[in-house]
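This protein record is not my work; I was only asked to verify it. The record follows directly below this note.
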Amino acid sequence: MTSKEIKIAYQEFDAIDELEAKDRELAQAAVEATAQAYAPYSKFNVGAAVLFEDGVIVKGANQENAAYPSGLCAERTALFYASASRPDKAMVAIAIAAGQDGHLCETPATPCGACRQVMAQYQLKSGLPMRVLLVGAHKIWRFEKVDDLLPLIFDSI
């Protein structure tokens, strides 16, 4: 038997202003997208913004439904819209922000497993690493690729 260890690396920032210009724009777009959430049940508004290789940004927000689990997370809303509207363009980054009552969560909210797998799928499709920004009111975490959020990605098909 051999023991192994998986380590992840990420950068932590104290404010959006500390980010590079393109990441700052993407993070702000995710924050803005939280206002478009339809979350009458959880009151947990999540916004996501996807950056394409050519600089275009598209946004999505979580959409709840009384017939749970028929709703959809912000990340998948943004990623599916991005893929459907620009199928031949590579997605190179995604930013995710969440809040309640008009205020961002103090620390970043992390994506669910299904959203991580969808991010992994689009990263694989593009052949490029997809940077992930998780945006909170007082902390921003930046991961250089989806693998850092989802080690041992399912890609065996």
In short: The two ends are 27 Å apart (CA to CA). The longest strand covers residues 91-100. Residues 11-148 form a domain with the Cytidine Deaminase; domain 2 fold (CATH 3.40.140.10).
